[in-house]
């Protein structure tokens, strides 16, 4: 990893663009595919300017066909390319689910490494931007359950760029979830040039001895706000940004939970079968005797993500997270 | 539509070359070469069914009856081309250079069987229907991007044309002029469902119109028609003219798989009649007889040679090292994750150090 010295101020969207730009420049085998990503620069402008810079043969507007272009990208990946495909919204990935489940994630295993699929699937996800229905899903655990694909989800510009570069360099398929609510909500200093954030490593955002709060993506600002509120009441939290949902950073979680003995997990995905369940299993396996209270989950409900008229009720809020922190403290 | 897409033949059922323009194509050397390849894969197919009946391999999908489609198309390929077979196209795969041992291993539940030898670009057989069609479109597109003259062939059945991936794959390939040949074997049944229930279209070839790509319907039991039209489509692909769709009309004599009973859904006399009239090997036998070139001793010789090769592959398959449980864990990712490593460690410890 080359350490970059200069920085620039970028939003999360711009940081992803920067990562893609660097990798298109760096590697001839990187190729971008998706709907409206060329001339239009993507519906969120993530690929803005890239077709102009690298040409139509490397930044490719595809027909409207999630299964078709994900399937074609599998063929390209098996034949020497590193495709980065954009699914316009995670809620539109389902037609491609078969290609990802039956081929992308298991071609290496089927052929014992003879054919591999070094591909990145980018997908904006999540609610909170008053988008139409199906544009707001947060179904990451469908993919964390799927063997053979890694799932990452940055919450900020620095991680987004570093994880994007790491995902493109990864020899296996990576689902790259982009919190659209955080796309432009803040700016931060991001190093220029190439750097990576290791897949499988989380990050501790605040330090506290009382409660471990685990979140990722668009739930990080929610968790942080709750932790700040609780600090006013004298409760100190370790806020952990998971960053990678598979494979989970076991050590980061276990070290924190062994210290605090109390855990609150925040995710906007539905509760049942969500990543929160995996985290509680992990805590059960590795930190059972350290527990001072049962782990709490603050999640989206076991209901389809509602129309945006209801999304403020559906999404976890700092208030719900703070209540959960109080609950584990009072147990 | 049938008139727009007439069934193209080079040799008719009586073993006669239908047009003078093909007289030079149909040489004794080619006939004998095509015949011996078809005999070889037919013998493999029968051996595999027999092994399944004896419990020596798992469920098996036979292709007997479709030999001309698989041999003629595979022989039209160049060594550096790509092949995307389904579970019923291992005849084509072995003609293209796949290892017989590995094909047996695949049908005996072993990942090792999915590895093609000698750098051959043969994808593992697609099990979910039509899902290989976008792969072929993409791999062929990649060849074009690299600036090679390599092409891809993609096999699929009549049932696959009802799937969304058929449309998405053909559409993608036609938009980007991928050098790919979409080779449909219309054996007229998707397990039990006849093609009349599969689609309202009179032909599969006509679907090419929608993608503005060449589409032809051929006699899939005429190995020369298959070879000729596949060669033409491959040439177009190599010349940058994009994909083509070939509908090869054929018939599987037997069951969908060894777990299937075709007597439940179709009259077995029909298969017997097809075998007596339209069989791909019989057609070449008739040509050889018409030309006074048929030689029982030669047939016996190629059959014995094939039997030896197949028996050797069976022995290799059966003497192959037993399944190593580590394989389950070691090929999910290039670098294993901690969850997989933990599961592997605990499991191998439980079952003992010998791995079983």
From TrEMBL, chain A:
Pfam family, one: Transketolase_C
Molecular function per GO: oxidoreductase activity
Keywords recorded for this protein, A-Z: Oxidoreductase, Thiamine pyrophosphate
UniProt key word Zinc: no
Gene3D superfamilies: 3.40.50.920, 3.40.50.970
Cofactor(s) the protein requires to work: thiamine diphosphate
Keyword Oxidoreductase: yes
Domain Transketolase-like pyrimidine-binding stretches: 10-185
Name the record gives this protein: Alpha-ketoacid dehydrogenase subunit beta
TrEMBL record, chain B:
Sequence ranges assigned to domain Dehydrogenase E1 component in this UniProt record: 38-325
InterPro entries hit by this protein: Alpha-ketoacid_DH_E1_comp (IPR050771), DH_E1 (IPR001017), PdhA/BkdA (IPR017596), THDP-binding (IPR029061)
NCBIfam families recorded: PDH_E1_alph_x (TIGR03181)
Oxidoreductase found in the keyword field: yes
Top-level taxon of the source organism: Bacteria
Essential cofactor(s): thiamine diphosphate
Gene for this chain: pdhA
UniProt keywords, alphabetically: Oxidoreductase, Pyruvate, Thiamine pyrophosphate
Record-level GO BP terms: branched-chain amino acid catabolic process
Pfam families: E1_dh (PF00676)
Complexes and interactors: Heterodimer of an alpha and a beta chain.
Name of the featured protein: Pyruvate dehydrogenase E1 component subunit alpha
Enzyme Commission (EC) number: 1.2.4.1
Function: The pyruvate dehydrogenase complex catalyzes the overall conversion of pyruvate to acetyl-CoA and CO(2). It contains multiple copies of three enzymatic components: pyruvate dehydrogenase (E1), dihydrolipoamide acetyltransferase (E2) and lipoamide dehydrogenase (E3).
Listed GO MF terms: pyruvate dehydrogenase (acetyl-transferring) activity
Keyword Transit peptide: no
Catalytic reaction(s) noted: N(6)-[(R)-lipoyl]-L-lysyl-[protein] + pyruvate + H(+) = N(6)-[(R)-S(8)-acetyldihydrolipoyl]-L-lysyl-[protein] + CO2
